[in-house]
Amino acid sequence: MSARGVGRLAAVTLASGLVAAAVLTGAGRAAADDGTTQSQSGASATMNGLKTYGEAVVHGDSGDEQVAAGLFEMSVDGGGMLQTYCVDLHNPTQRDAKYHETSWSGTSLGANKNAGKIRWILQNSYPQVNDLAALARKAGAGSLTEQDAAAGTQVAIWRYSDGADVDAVDPQAEKLADYLEKSADGQNEPQASLTLSPSAVSGRPGALLGPVTVRTNARTVTVVPPADAALSGVRITDRTGKPVTTAQNGTELYFKVPDDAQDGSAELTLQASTTVPVGRALASDGRSQTQILAGSSESTVAATANATWADQGAVLALSADKDCARRGLDVTAANTGDEPFTFELMNTEYTIAADTRRTVTVPLQEDQPYDFTITGPHDLERRFTGVFDCKTQGTDAGLTTQTLSEPSPASVGGTTTANLAATGGDSATGVITGVAIGLVVIGGAVLVILRQRESEQTD
Fold it and tell me: Fewer CB within 10 Å, N- or C-terminus of the chain?
């Protein structure tokens, strides 16, 4: 008798007024607390707030709205600081929001033909260019303060990231914004600070499982073996089976699993200290406006990959990535076993044949929280959580942005900014406003639980 590999993918989204808002804001933290297996790649950081800024006016069909515009700061997990600009004008920024480095394809930048121009602006303006006198001469701006430079740079970015009709309040900052907008030229997406490809592998005991290729701008990377390596005997090696403790860009790593290992899985972690490349996107684990990197100190970055092995049957490597172009979550399943793996998704059954790799896109709506768990043979379980945030809203949606600084942006230049909504730990108003349109689109409650099937074949 042989068992046919059968799996289950359960996708649960809650939407209905306040319940949805609560789930949305807590999604990232819940995932971190319950030990979700979603892989890490690059820098992870916590939002500190808007630190260097001026004022701007956004012109819309419903009138003009005044907002703070400038540089945010984030504290990197493990050490380091990041400076960022917003590329998501009309969404709220949440106090202490958790962010992670990601590719453009996982954000609104992926479908933005002007994303490369935004990177040019970042490379040719403040804070990458800290000679403000020279920058002012190029822009014909007379003189620039740090606040002017930050505001002008943010305004120029918004014109490309959100297609916004926006002007800086300060005349010098406005001249800088115009100069940057007109001069911007397309640039390629920057390399990740640290990532592993693929982030999941599988195979048989006694084999070298991999390769997992290191991609990084760090000079050297520390390889941290699986936590239970002493008991399981699993080692991280090169292609010859020699143990590896450090790696560089392009290094290929393998999981060396003992011949007598019981069916199981293991995870390796890579850590390094480096500067995160300018232009990398930073997405929140919950619902907080997308950022783009403008500057980085020497910072701690990390990446994880996992391996699964079994003596017989289907043996799966599972990973998932947000895909804004395809409007969903790409779930990739690689089956290195000798039997097929079948799962049901949105009332459709998919089969991953033996020795086959396949990607299935789970369709998601904008602003939709997701929580997917895939289970399979040999006690396999992989969970992927987040919020699908791939669009910037039009100006008519109203502004709920730029509210995190100390002092409040409402006091900048002595001008009242009554249209700025309160966000962060003091109130849930900004969150509810930010997701309202998404909830209307989602419409009511959506609950999809896809059943697990088990079948046997008699030889």
Answer: C
CA nearest 306: which of 297, 293, 315? 315
The model's pLDDT over 98-131, given as tens digits with 9 standing for 90+, comes to 999 999 998 999 989 999 999 999 999 999 999 9
Q: Which tokens belong to 259?
A: 């011949």
The two structure tokens encoding residue 152: 């002008």
Lowest mean pLDDT among 54-68, 144-158, 291-305, 308-322: 308-322
d(CA 172, CA 218): 38
**Residues 267, 199: Cα–Cα separation, whole Å:** 10
Q: How far apart are CA 152 and CA 122, in angstroms?
A: 11
Backbone angles phi and psi of 233, in degrees to 5: 80, 5
Residues 366 and 90: their CA atoms lie apart, in Å, by 14
Residues in Cβ contact with 408 at an 8 Å cutoff, skipping those fewer than 6 apart: none
Which residue in this structure is represented by tokens 């003992």? 258
Alpha helices in 62-131 (DSSP H): 115-123
- Within 8 A by CB and 6+ apart from 440, the residues are none
- As a whole number of angstroms, the distance between CA 294 and CA 69 comes to 14
The span from the CA of 213 to the CA of 192, in Å, is 13
CA–CA gap between residue 25 and residue 443 (Å, rounded) = 19
Note if the pTM is more than 0.85: no
Neighbouring residues of 131: CB distance < 8 A, sequence distance ≥ 6? none
Structure tokens at 332: 């990739």
The whole-angstrom distance between residue 167's C-alpha and the CA centroid of its chain comes to: 29
- Quote the CA–CA distance of 282 and 279 in Å, as a whole number: 9
Single out the residue of 447, 308, 226, 446 nearest to residue 7, CA to CA: 308
336-357: pLDDT as tens digits: 999 998 876 666 677 899 999 9
164: amino acid identity, one letter: A
